[in-house]
Amino acid sequence: MGPSQNQWFLVGSPPVPVTVPPVPLLQLEKCCTRNNSVTLAWRTPPFTHSTVDGYILELDDGDGGQFREVYVGKETLCTIDGLHFNSTYNARVKAFNSSGVGPYSKTVVLQTSDVAWFTFDPNSGHRDIILSNDNQTATCSSYDDRVVLGTAAFSKGVHYWELHVDRYDNHPDPAFGVARASVGKDMMLGKDDKAWAMYVDSNRSWFMHCSSHTNRTEGGVCKGATVGVLLDLNEHTLTFFINGQQQGPTAFSHVDGVFMPALSLNRNVQVPRTLQARARLLPPAPAPLPVGLQSALGKGGSKEAARGAVQAGSLPTGPPGHPLETLLSRVMFSCLSA
């Protein structure tokens, strides 16, 4: 038999009732979204005499589906990461104690960003990765390849970003792609089962996953080259581009789950400046969409550098013929001699 709505216990005399908690009050001024994360805050109403043992926070699936529990505990502020971009979520909270579960709060509606901004993640990189310039510049102190991730996570939609090879000496082979958060950080990207990558030298490229090298393709990178990464989670494919042309066939199919932009480099490769990255979640479309070219200048850059990037063709227009409406990242690479 479950708990009744009213229980009694004795503290001296007379008996004191224990009732279910009242409706929590959402603190809308503290509720917010950032990229694909939402933060919710609430409190117990004033002059409440009922005890509160904890709270249950529920969120729908961002597509009008059923609510599900995303947090149970005593905290009154909760951040939920890894949601879909460009999606509307409904959230509600209720309190509970030994007497039962109280009523739901009002529902708050939160819209995640339609554009993803990401830089390098200082918490994800190998210890040999050195980040500076507000996490927009990555270098490496080791001759061995080390991995660093972006701060965004994608699980739905179409996302495209580009990287610009600013200087290239000594024929290093940086790797570009996507990875799970748990990817190994002390090896080239793609050597374990948590990353899907293309590594490239001055003459050719290979796709790599689980240390399996496939689809050797002629055509490498040099100073001024552009590497594009297209993650299409509508079609569950990953495709790479060099200088606006698709490099080899579709690199990987049946990719599903949560992915983060990823890069591996050694001390022969330096990323001196990262222009903030944007990626937009889009529904499938039968025809190309126009690209709205906007400023992607990061805090550490200059207007002159941005103009130079545009003149050099380093601000992307997206892969030819793909239904993409995204202004994405430009990462400036220098590949240096040891």
TrEMBL record:
Residues annotated as domain Fibronectin type-III: 21-115
Cited Pfam families: fn3, SPRY
Keywords: Coiled coil
InterPro entries, alphabetized: B30.2/SPRY (IPR001870), B30.2/SPRY_sf (IPR043136), ConA-like_dom_sf (IPR013320), E3_ligase_FN3/SPRY (IPR050617), FN3_dom (IPR003961), FN3_sf (IPR036116), Ig-like_fold (IPR013783), SPRY_dom (IPR003877)
Cellular component GO terms held in the UniProt record: cytoplasm
Membrane-spanning ranges: none
Domain of life: Eukaryota
Ranges of residues in domain B30.2/SPRY: 97-280
Region annotation Disordered: where it falls in the sequence: 293-321
Protein name: Tripartite motif-containing protein 67
Organism (species): Tursiops truncatus
